[in-house]
Amino acid sequence: MKFSEFSFDNSLIEGLDMMGFSEATPIQEKAIPAILNGHDVLAVAQTGTGKTAAFLLPIIQMLAQQEHQGIHTLILGPTRELIMQVDQQLEALSYFTGTSSIPIYGGRGGIEMEQEKKALKKGADIVVATPGRLISHLEMGYAQIDNLQCLILDEADRMLDMGFAPAIQTIVNKLPQKRQTLLFSATMPHDIRRFSKQLLKEPVEINIAISKPAENIMQGAYEINDKGKVPLTAHLLSGKKNLKRVIIFASTKKKVRDLTLGLQRAGLDATDISSDLDQSDREKRLQSFKNGTIPIVVATDVLSRGIDVKGIDLVINYDVPGDGEDYVHRIGRTARAAASGVALTLINGEDMYKFKRIEDMIEMSVRRIPLPPALAEFKATRSRGGRHTHGRGRGRSPYRGGNKKRHKRN
Description:
Blueprint: H1 10-19, H2 26-36, E1 41-44, H3 51-65, E2 73-76, H4 80-93, E3 101-104, H5 110-122, E4 126-129, H6 131-138, E5 150-153, H7 156-161, H8 165-174, E6 180-185, H9 190-199, E7 204-207, E8 217-223, H10 226-237, E9 246-249, H11 253-265, E10 270-273, H12 279-290, E11 296-299, E12 314-317, H13 324-331, E13 341-347, H14 352-362, E14 367-368
Parallel strand pairs: 1-6, 1-7, 2-4, 2-5, 3-4, 5-6, 8-13, 8-14, 9-11, 9-12, 10-11, 12-13
């Protein structure tokens, strides 16, 4: 289904065109009409399915066609990282609409706190926040929430895992009872089902399953800290003459370069492919990989989708992928055309919780492989709490007022 079929405001269509979006994903196709019709929604959808735009687009559409006083929509998420991701997508999609928004999360100083306060007092159209930081503002009584129309809980299962249920309830108790509520979760355990019954009224239920890894992929994982990742990767590849083609996925271009150099120093014939290369260099290296001249390629996710190279024996996730969909795409580069293959993932302490979520999404447990004795000292230990904290960091000026003329329905 094309976005043009939703009869979106022209200002919103401009934002979609700018981002290169034309076709709706399954979650968008099902959620957008339900939200625009005013229903509460209970959706099971992972990151990578387009779920963020599924709730942002109808909210921006409502705001583009009607005036509103105070905060219209509150979006709650579990971590600073998620809040920043949602806010960035919101900024891009709403660029031509004049919608005002603000991200609110912990780990920032007094200047940012004052900017958040001003936006909440004035009534930004959309507030994207972590529960703890938002409560600090709500308790001071200046947030313009009396006319709030919509509450969205993003990654609700993770928020409950992190112990945010009391904070969410505190926030909900301060909101108008008459509102639209949308709950998006990667999984639907009993706690989420029970929690949703407290918040939602006769919701439309949507379940979007991600694809599963092929059965002929042998999956394994090593729990190892970052210092041990390069030596372990070199150990896995050294002397393995039966491995004709290997792809290693790393999360950043710097890690791709550093790992490639490390493998080359270990005497391995490896090259790197990332978006830093121009198209001709990228194609040359990929061709060398396809014809077997270079057996090992280290890459960012630029190679995880759309590449069709037969005979890939091994895929190594040097870093844990961002979500289950990315994991499936990465390891799906092996075991193509009914062949078998191996996929190995290196998990540091901070990523143990993330990988557990991936296992939940693909509905299988990946076997943990003991480290070689020579590398036993690098075994990873779970980071404190086993989950992300809000952390510290500086952000750009977070308040964006709607300085463009808002389009209204004629």
